[in-house]
Amino acid sequence: MRIASFNINGVKARLPRLLEWLEETRPTVACLQEIKSQDEGFPVEEFEKIGYKAIWYGQKSFNGVAILADGVEPVEVQRGLPGDPDDEQSRYLEADVNGVRIACIYLPNGNPQPGPKFDYKLAWMARLRARMTELWTQEIPAIVLGDFNVIPEDKDVWSPKAMASDALMQPESRDAYAQLLGDGWTDAIDTLNPRGGVWTYWDYQAGAWQRDHGFRIDHLLLSPELADRMKATGVDKDYRGREKASDHAPVWVEITG
Fold it and tell me: Site annotation (Interaction with DNA substrate): which residues (predicted)?
């Protein structure tokens, strides 16, 4: 079973690339972020044509998440991250697929920092931890994956100095992420690539892709019940280099069963 995540940066703008990736790699589950589409505009028919069922949580022009499953309907569990009834941003979607709880997230960027956007990021991470604790106590196979907008350690960025003032690398952001791992969740990519140097994002500016000036912000966090079944993990880096690509590359984990 392959579970993947892809910040697509506009589902309509990148639809040819997205369909290409789905057909070429055929993940069992594909979580999407930044679909940037209202619910009624989501191109579900295009996914159904190639055998994928989908649920989605859209928002006009910004944010938006979706869960696609190969040949089966994702069973929705939670739409929106609990803990703040006034939060209207579409950043969290949770479903069951083939006996696995899938939580697709698009964590706030937080820039510029300091300021209200960074405060929102940290508050959102606290709410995420609370929800992940609830999942933990259920003792079910679970994965929380997506664009976390956190560079966990210096080994996860091409130049720590270049990103030092960014919200993605602030001590508060890193500490909040480290707390999730401290709670017992397994960072799949880091576990199998402990030396770092694995990027999932390359900016469109300053020739970042051509110079391999990237960093790792797309993560796959596994509960103990799922971590025991992990076989492999990786980044579909080549898709970042294709025409009209997203600025993120897809990430994935293979589990047994």
Answer: 248
Name 164's Cβ contacts closer than 8 Å, sequence gap at least 6.
none
pLDDT tens digits along 65-74:
999 999 999 9
Burial degree of 7 (CB within 10 A; 0-12, 13-18, 19+): buried
Q: How many domains does the chain have?
A: 1
CA distances from 39 to 7, 92, 104, 192, 227 (A): 17, 14, 16, 36, 33
Q: Is 20 annotated as a binding residue?
A: no
**Is 86 annotated as contributing to ligand binding?**
no
Q: What is the pLDDT of residues 5-64, one digit of tens each?
A: 999 999 999 999 999 999 999 999 999 999 999 999 999 999 999 999 999 999 998 999
Query: What token pair was written down for 89?
Result: 């941003």
CATH code: domain of residue 83: 3.60.10.10
Predicted pLDDT of residue 34: 98
Active site residues: 106, 147, 248
Tokens of 153: 């350690």
156 is in an annotated binding site: no
**Residue 213 annotated as part of some ligand binding site:** no
* β-pair type (201-202, 100-106): unpaired
